[in-house]
């Protein structure tokens, strides 16, 4: 591609899409934000149509009609066949001469590292982990929920909290203050009332994830069951990270392990301390950190990597997103 590539960077998550148009010298010409990207729910065509709106906004604001390279980090691109399908769909839009599609977790990893090297674990609605090396090798998991062996993520944590609270209230399980804190969040008196409201959809199913912060607050107040769930999440995060580091032969050298997504970015002390402690014993050379940078920066940096852009171009781009 040479070193004069204009990059269209796309970071499309389940809840929102960020787009940036980056000049060959690393200057950000324009950014735009759009809605979530959910091909499984709406189909690839309509999902890409939604992206097109946001891309058009950014191109118009930048005063350009296309880019040289499209670097798209997309939610729900979990298998290579899905990446290929989405890359084909993006090619037909003619936004750029070359197109590279990756899972959106790679954007969070690349945003937090100075070179494409290390591992990221993202815990938002779901949980996922990816790793990369400068030579192009990657490590990843399908991350589709229980069928692909996952545990954790905001949805999973809320479900786990509900399970323990339901059993505590009716006597099948050990007592926990989750029995009170979960229904109280919705202004309800008992778990029985909450279970009924969720079942009859008097509480919208999408609101279930609101219970994850309640779980962490309950854990912070000392509840043993809630604390057990948080400890289990720390263990799960470190297990994924250690497997990815091992696959990439990074376990024996200093390598970043970055934490991202809403649940990890909230920096709950018990969770972050638990992750640090477990990493210290299982991957002692790993350097943990929480990614604060916008993931679209990561998508743009991956685009600059592909274009072979020099370091000062990377630095100029970073300054825009990390003032």
TrEMBL record:
InterPro entries from the UniProt entry: ATPase_BadF, ATPase_NBD, Euk-type_GlcNAc_Kinase
Domain (ATPase BadF/BadG/BcrA/BcrD type) ranges: 10-303
Domain of life: Bacteria
Gene3D superfamilies: 3.30.420.40
Pfam families registered for this protein in UniProt: BcrAD_BadFG (PF01869)
Protein name: ATPase
Species of origin: Streptomyces viridochromogenes
Lineage: Bacteria, Bacillati, Actinomycetota, Actinomycetes, Kitasatosporales
